[in-house]
Amino acid sequence: MMSSRQSAPSSPNIVDDRLQRLFDLLVAGIGLVALSPLFLLISICVKLDSPGPAFYRATRVGRSGKLFRLFKFRTMVVNADRSGPGITVAGDARVTRVGRWLRRTKIDELPQLINVLRGEMSLVGPRPEDPRYVALYTTEQRQILAYRPGITSAASLAFRHEETLLNGPDWDVIYREKIMPTKLAIDLAYMAQRSLYTDLQLILRTIVSMGK
């Protein structure tokens, strides 16, 4: 767990939070049941495409700075995190054939419905970040840790083709100094005025954008 000084100082309104949690549980529960045949099919495809497990569990920073393991369909070769950067860059050779399709359509994110049921994530919220990058947050940016991270967010929609921006030897500088601050600003602005209605709109926009 990250230290208390790294956590945001405030939390969302408890009534809104409880309503949001109820909505998350309902949608995630129905979604996991309805998508179970698709999960099985994708799991088989992932394992046939390259050796290793069907799922990948990445360490991410959640609400109040707590670390958790995020579920995704595996889109890279086994031990990819030990043979390259912590984020995916343009033309990353570690991505498998099936993985390219899963990442393009964002279907690789669907197992995070499990994280939603576990209370570690929400359907909508700032995308959970790698601890190495959270350590670089400014005091203002740490306000994002007051919110439960989400499967989709305003920033993830704006940067849905983020990998194409991370090319060349300076990819890490580009992410740290340009992309990450912009994404945090977008999500902080959204979360400050979010409602169940705006979340529903964002979810629909995410579904429509899949594969574009």
Description:
- The chain is mostly helical and 212 residues long.
- It has one domain (4-209).
- Helices cover 45% and strands 9% of the residues.
- The chain contains seven helices and four strands; from the N terminus they run αββααβαβααα.
- The chain has helices at residues 14-49, 97-105, 112-117, 131-134, 154-158, 171-192, 196-209, and strands at 55-61, 67-73, 122-124, 150-152.
- The strands form two sheets. It has a two-stranded antiparallel sheet with strand order 1-2.
- The longest helix has 36 residues, at 14-49.
> How much helix is in the residues?
40-55%
Give the oligomer, counting copies of the same chain as homo and different chains as hetero: single chain
Biggest sheet, in brief? 2 strands, antiparallel
Given as residue ranges, the uncertain stretches (5+ residues, pLDDT < 50) are 3-9
Task: Report strand %.
Answer: 5-15%
Strand order of the largest sheet: 1-2
Count the domains: 1
The coarse overall form would be: globular
What's the SSE blueprint?
Elements: H1 14-49, E1 55-61, E2 67-73, H2 97-105, H3 112-117, E3 122-124, H4 131-134, E4 150-152, H5 154-158, H6 171-192, H7 196-209
Brief synopsis:
Helices cover 45% and strands 9% of the residues. By secondary structure, it is mainly alpha-helical.
